Amino acid sequence: MLITLRKTLNNMDTKIKVKEPLFSAKNMKLITSPIGKNNPVIIQVLGICSALAVTVKLKPALVMALSVTIVVSVSNLIISSMRSYIPERIRIIVQLVVIATLVIIVDQILKAYAFDVSKQLSVFVGLIITNCIIMGRLEAFALYNKPWQSFLDGLGNGAGYGLILIIVSFFRELFGSGTILGYPVIRKLGLYSIGYENNGLMILPPMALIILGLLIWLQRSRNKSLIEQK
What is the value of pTM for the model shown? Predict the structure, then answer.
């Protein structure tokens, strides 16, 4: 009888599932990993086009980073919640509809509350729809994982993308225009009086590519496992 009771208790223990904390170490890794060692831009080399186009000034880069983070996080959440009901043959169409809807909402909010920035970003807000990072996370993660984990994955990848945009735009605006968020840093430091001139090359698209290349080189020099073996 004791043996039977013990077996019953063991079966009950196996059926009881321990609820994982919302911000467990495993879940937090979904946020921290894309920011560092698995960055979507400098490791996976995704989202390069917008990184070249909207990083002349820091303010538009910040807005673009926030926009992409919102779109990828919320689209991950929606697709993950719907994953059991999406037919395999039309999953790409459903994903595009969700992304396009979110991008239109973001675009209209920017036009209503940040019109000047919206004009600077021009068509690149609309082109968030074609951002490889968003489609990639939907296909690789959201379709196979729970909504909360998918939301965190989108948040991490959006933050990783945004971090690179901020770094690139910081140096381009500082050395190309002498300002940071419009504040005349170089002039306040008095560097113009000793002969410093703004570097016009910094505001051209090739310089964004060079800075990205330097960031990729820096990341690979720190993490040797990323270097391809011959």
Answer: 0.85
How many domains are there within the chain?
1
Decide if 154 is inside a domain: yes
Q: Would you give the DSSP letter of residue 130?
A: G
| Identity of the amino acid at 222 | R
Cβ–Cβ under 8 Å, residues 197 and 104: no
Output the six-digit token pair for 230.
């011959």
Find the DSSP H helices in the chain. 2-15, 25-35, 48-53, 58-82, 91-113, 115-121, 132-140, 147-177, 185-189, 205-222
Q: Is 27 among the domain residues? A: no
Identify whether 224 is part of a domain. no
Residue showing tokens 């909360």:
148
- Are 13 and 7 in contact, with CB atoms under 8 Å apart? no
CA distance 35 to 156: 6
Report how far residue 112's alpha carbon sits from residue 31's, in angstroms, rounded to the nearest whole number.
30
Partners of 183 in the beta sheet? 180
8 A C-beta contact, residue 152 and residue 31: yes
Joined together, the tokens standing for residue 218 give: 């820096």
Domain assignment of residue 151, given as a range = 40-172
| Tens of pLDDT, residues 22-74 | 778 888 899 999 998 888 888 888 888 877 888 889 999 999 999 999 999 99
In the block, tokens 């013990």 appear at 6
**69-104 per-position pLDDT tens digit:** 999 999 999 999 999 999 989 999 999 999 999 999
